[in-house]
Specification:
Layout lengths: L7 E8 L7 H14 L3 E6 L3 H17 L4 E9 L1 E3 L2 E3 L5 E3 H6 L14 E6 L34 E5 L9 E2 L3 E2 H12 L4 H14 L2 E3 L2 E3 L4 E4 L9
Parallel strand pairs: 1-2, 1-3, 3-7, 7-8
Antiparallel strand pairs: 4-5, 5-6, 8-13, 9-10, 11-12
Helix pairs in contact: 1-4, 4-5
GO molecular function: cysteine-type endopeptidase activity
GO biological process, one term: positive regulation of neuron apoptotic process
Main location: cytoplasm
């Protein structure tokens, strides 16, 4: 079963460019991606911590006020950060969970049972990953049920540029490897979004970044409560 993507596709990008060289390259790439994928895109530069929250609430209110059918919403958040928090232009912190709640099934009626995708380009700590030999296995857990109501937090996809506790990397001129890779895959590949994100993860895991003469590894983290396949193309 797939999500109905025949209606309006809406996107909000909030990006702190202050002391984040390369951010404009990411914004340009995202704008091209949203245009090609048929999204109505709004971009806000250099929000304060409070404005992060205010812009999400305005976005939610605008979505609920629409009279046409809304298919999905993308929210891109780019800033310096620590685990669970983003830093606004004013150096104050905002809780990511507060931002995520704005569009959940309780607070945004127009997006109830519809896909909500959050893309977060920010550090989640100070750790750096030098890489490890390949090892390990897969663990899959499946639970089936058929409720008459819908949980508050379903139909949501959180895509973080790095895993909890680790740094996210960004080139001064070319932008962040995460955003640039994600845009390239979303624009040029076809398939359900989780399959596309697996390709993003593969590319990032195979790449090697050099920071201060040291080789570094980085990969995104994907958290999904999607109930159906989501196709962007």
């Amino acid at each position: 079963e797939t999500y109905d993507m025949s209606g309006a596709r809406l996107a909000l990008t909030l990006c702190v460019t202050k002391a984040r060289e390369g951010s404009e390259a990411d914004l340009d790439a995202l704008e091209r991606m949203f245009q090609q994928l048929g999204f109505e895109s709004t971009m806000k530069r250099d929000p304060t911590a409070q404005q992060f929250q205010e812009e999400l609430e305005k976005f939610q209110q605008a979505i609920d006020a629409r009279e046409d059918f809304v298919s999905c919403a993308f929210v891109v958040l780019m800033a310096h950060g620590l685990e669970g928090r983003l830093k606004g232009k004013d150096e104050r912190m905002v809780e990511l969970e507060d931002l995520f709640q704005a569009l959940n099934n309780k607070n945004c009626r127009a997006l109830r049972a519809k896909p909500k995708v959050y893309i977060v380009q920010a550090c989640r700590g100070e750790q750096r990953d030098p890489g490890e030999p390949v090892a390990g296995g897969d663990l899959v857990m499946i639970t089936n049920n058929t409720p008459e109501t819908i949980p508050t937090y379903t139909d949501t996809l959180h895509v973080f540029s790095t895993i909890e506790g680790y740094i996210a990397y960004r080139h001064d001129q070319e932008g962040s490897y995460f955003i640039q890779t994600l845009v390239d895959v979303f624009v040029n590949k076809r398939g359900p979004i989780l399959e596309l994100l697996t390709e993003v993860t593969r590319r990032m895991a195979e790449a090697e970044m050099i920071q201060e003469g040291e080789a570094r590894k980085v990969n995104p983290e994907i958290q999904s409560t999607l109930r159906k396949r989501l196709y962007l193309q």
